[in-house]
Structures are given as C-alpha cells and as structure tokens.
Design goal:
Among the domains are: 28-84; 102-134 and 156-208, Ribosomal protein S6/Translation elongation factor EF1B (Alpha-Beta Plaits), CATH 3.30.70. It has helices spanning 31-83, 91-101, 106-115, 169-179, and strands at 121-133, 136-143, 146-151, 155-166, 185-196, 199-208. By secondary structure, it is an alpha+beta fold. The chain is rod-shaped, with a radius of gyration of 51 Å. The longest helix has 53 residues, at 31-83.
Length: 213
C-alpha cells in the first residue's frame, strides 16, 4: 500500500516534521543600527540635561529670593540699631539688679507703716512711683565730627505717696516723725494738706529704700 504525506491510511497516520538547516545570519552593526542607537543616547542625554538645567534654574531663583530676604533683614537690623537708645554703662543686667534690689517688699512695707499710725490717722490710698535720673558727659574729640560720650548708670528713685486723713495736725506731725524712723522710708515731705469738716486731709511724699541698704 502506498502512503501519501498528510493522508491517513488505515488506523494509523504519518506526520512530516520540517527541519530548517539554514544557518541564521550573525548580528552585525550596520549604519542604521548605529544611527538609531546614537539618536536614542542623544535623546536620553538631552532629557537629563533639561531636567538638571531646570533644577539649577529653580535653585538660582530660590537663592536670589533668600539673598533679598537677608538684605532686607540686614537693613531692618541697622535701622533698629540706629533707633535703639544707647547702652547704659554697666549693662542691662546691673541696671535690672539695681531696680530689684531697691524695691522693698510691699507686705513688709505696709505692715511697718501701718504700725506707726496714731489712732486718729488713717490712710486713703498708697501709691508707688518709680523714676530714673542720670546724666551724660561729653568727652574729647577723637575723630572729625565724632565725640566720645560717657554714659552714667541712671539712679532708680522710688516714691511712696500716702494720702490720708487725720483729726488733728498734732497727730499728723507724730505720724511723720514715726514714719521717718521706718527702715523702708528715707525721707518724708508733706506735699499737701487741707482743712476738712472732719479734720484734715494730707499727702506725704516718701523716698522708699530696701531695708538692707
């Protein structure tokens, strides 16, 4: 029996497998491939360069903004330094120390002054005032149109103003005598007195000091 390829004969059949025995052409660098590779590399480099150039430009803009802010802050600092009052000799720390050391405790002050009141004298109000006194002395000329100045530390002055009433001037005189013996009071001046229906009103100006001075 003759068997033809691809035709079934009886219960069995024959398959034909084709084998390609031709050798494949090896990979070669051609001008087309070289040009395509070169164009791809150029495109990638251009993209990288563009991204870096954008970043550098952005950083330069941010740097100019920061430099402008720094320049404005320097100008503001110079303006504030020119407008600020001259520094005091001895520094601000010693000045604050003087303020606090010359301030007596209110509770102790009021308690001490109240104990020195005669029976017919009473307070209407107690007021504390703080003032500063100082002077400036000019020195010799060091440069053209420049003068050296020496600044003295201002002296802290604390006043206690006592307003009250009394039935008699004798009791007021006794109270002034008693209060001048207080360790919190250095000097007392009767700044005002007035005759009223029930007696006299008065105002005393007292220089306050700390007891340890």
């Amino acid at each position: 029996m003759r068997v033809f390829p691809g035709i079934v004969a009886g219960p069995s059949f024959v398959m034909i497998t084709r084998i390609n025995l031709i050798e494949r052409e090896p990979f070669k660098f051609t001008y087309t491939r070289i040009i395509k590779s070169g164009v791809s590399i150029v495109i990638v480099c251009a993209l990288v360069f563009g991204i870096q150039a954008y970043r550098i430009s952005k950083y330069q803009r941010d740097l100019k903004i920061i430099e402008g802010d720094i320049a404005r802050l320097k100008e503001e600092r110079m303006r504030l330094l020119k407008a600020a009052p001259p520094k005091l000799e001895g520094g601000s720390q010693s000045f604050l120390n003087e303020v606090f050391t010359q301030t007596p405790k209110w509770s102790a002050l009021i308690s001490d002054v109240s104990k020195r009141l005669p029976g017919t004298v009473w307070f209407s109000s107690l007021t504390a005032n703080t003032s500063f006194s100082g002077s400036q002395n000019s020195g010799k000329k060091q440069k053209k149109e420049e003068k050296a100045t020496t600044q003295q530390q201002p002296h802290v002055q604390k006043k206690l103003i006592i307003n009250g009433q009394t039935r008699s001037l004798d009791d007021l005189t006794l109270f002034i005598s008693n209060i001048t013996q207080s360790p919190f009071i250095q000097q007392t001046v009767l700044s005002n007195s007035k005759k009223e229906a029930m007696g006299f009103t008065f105002q005393l100006d007292c220089d306050m000091v700390a007891p340890n001075q």
